[in-house]
Amino acid sequence: MKELVKKAIKVLESNWQGNFTIPCKGLYPFQWNWDSGFIAIGLAHFDMTKAKKEISTLLNAQWGNGFIPHIIFHNESDTYFPGPDYHCAHLHPHASNKYKSSGITQPPVIGFVLQELYRIATNKSDIIRYIEEVIDKVYQNHKYFYENRDPFNEGLVYIYHNWESGTDNSPVWDSIFEKINSPEYNFKRRDTAHVDPEQRPSKKEYDHYLHILEIAKKHHYDDEKIAELSPFLVQDPLFNSMLIKSNQSLIELYDLIGKKQENMAQLKKWQEKSIRAFNEKLFDEELGAYIHYDLRNNKSIKYISSSSFTPLYAGIPNQNRALKMVTTLIEKFGREDNYLCASFDPTSNKYNPVKYWRGPIWININWMLYKGLKNYGFNKLAYQVKNDSIELVEKIGFYEYFDPRKELYTNESKGLGGTDFSWTAALIIDLLNENQMP
Ligand code: 9WN
After folding, report:
1. Please, what is the Cα angle at 119 between 134 and 123, to 5 degrees?
2. Does the C-beta of 166 come closer than 6 Å to ligand 1?
3. pLDDT digits (tens, 9 = 90+) for 366-391
4. What is the pLDDT of residues 179-207, one digit of tens each?
5. At 72, phi and psi to the nearest 5?
6. Cα distances (angstroms) measured from residue 151 to each of 157, 316, 425
7. 3-state secondary structure (DSSP) of residue 77
8. Protein residue with least CA distance to atom 14, ligand 1
9. Is residue 54 within 8 Å of 113, Cβ to Cβ?
10. Among 406, 288, 404, residue whose Cα is nearest residue 352
11. What's the pTM?
């Protein structure tokens, strides 16, 4: 196990750029928002200075309205598309004039990441000082979401692009894209030069991704216009779980530092409303899990994905509902010959065990599932998720994603997507470190 930690540290060190970490050489050569959050958790175990730097670098690129972009283009690289010249974030009046970035965001993990750093830190007074320095920025980010991404004041925020979800080509988006008449764009993809196209989204899907961006750009990334016009407008259980989990962390951290009682009071109001709305609107009794809501077309999207279970990590369901979710998880995802946890329902005909977010296992989701299941007392299943994650990485390496089918794994097996992927390394360090605790 010590060897695996050493290897993971090596991955993180080789992806470190001096003030942030790239997710993966070649494939993702810039700073990504939620990646940085997960990466900081791994860094915190062996170099807290770097962990703090990772988060500060991301927060430095925050816009004047509290928005934090999904990619920050600190450096030049022509190995990724779409780059800064395509995204044109400067079209928005509050965009950072210091950093080039995208104009879309990603799941808001930084609130709970700060609390993780506090948990891991040995020097508590140092980390408290750091939290005092940055916590208001994270609060401003949550304020941005509640004030700009919740047009009906429901307590649930929307995403307007699949790249904002972090689960880019999930079958959950298929019905939305089927309705959109996207033009065929002429562009040079870079991802398929690094990874087998079988494991990446299709050209048609990329056309949709660009088309939604074009609409946002045309309106200078104006949130009101986007809410009115974007053909993609979704309340995502993963995204909202991250916001709710981070709300809770911010409440507890404000309490810890004993400052800004008014921010804490506001967070508590948001939190109560969000949890209620989440439980009322996003749970599907028949499917026994939380699902996405298509706000543009006013209907639930009736598919179960690994996102459906992330509310466990945010403490959203009551114990009864959590039990229902676990039953669903075991029934649909828990075949003995599969590792846990596929990113999409393996019993569905849309399941594809090698294609990105349409089936493969992702370690960041497993990390959340492990923690969530454990918090509700489902220890056996929790440890199965944790042990499966470690076993996969130990067998074949720090890949971006993994085929769930156990029979495929031999000594020559390869994983899927990018190699030496940062959050896989970072979260494995966190999972293994727990083993050494009393
Ligand atoms: C688009 C960086 C990111 C992750 C996402 C993952 C993938 C990008 C892409 O890589 O998305 O943001 O180009 O496919 O889906 O979750 O943050 O690792």
Report:
1. 75
2. yes
3. 999 999 999 999 999 999 999 999 99
4. 999 999 999 999 999 999 999 999 999 99
5. -115, 120
6. 8, 22, 38
7. coil
8. 168
9. no
10. 404
11. 0.98
Other beta carbons less than 10 A from residue 436's beta carbon: 9
Residues 6+ apart with CB under 8 A from 113: 37, 38, 40, 41, 55
CA 165 / ligand 1 centre spacing (Å):
9
- How many angstroms is it from 436 CA to the middle of ligand 1? 31
- The whole-angstrom separation of Cα 100 and Cα 232 is 24
Q: How do residues 399-430 score in pLDDT, each as one tens digit? A: 999 999 999 998 788 999 999 999 999 999 99
Classify burial at 19, counting beta carbons within 10 Å of its beta carbon; exposed 0-12, middle 13-18, buried 19 or more. Answer: middle
The alpha carbons of the chain give a radius of gyration, in whole angstroms, of 20
| Contact indicator for 300, 363 with CB cutoff of 8 Å | no
For residue 203, give every residue at least 6 positions away whose Cβ sits within 8 Å of its Cβ, in sequence order, or none. Answer: 189
List Cα–Cα distances, 216 to 96, 208, 213, 269, in angstroms: 17, 13, 5, 30
List, by residue number, the catalytic residues.
168, 400
Look-up of token digits 């971006």 = 400
Q: Parallel, antiparallel, or unpaired for β 289-290 and 283-284?
A: antiparallel
Integer Cα distance of 405 and 339 in angstroms: 6
- Residue 60, number of CB atoms within 10 A of its CB: 15
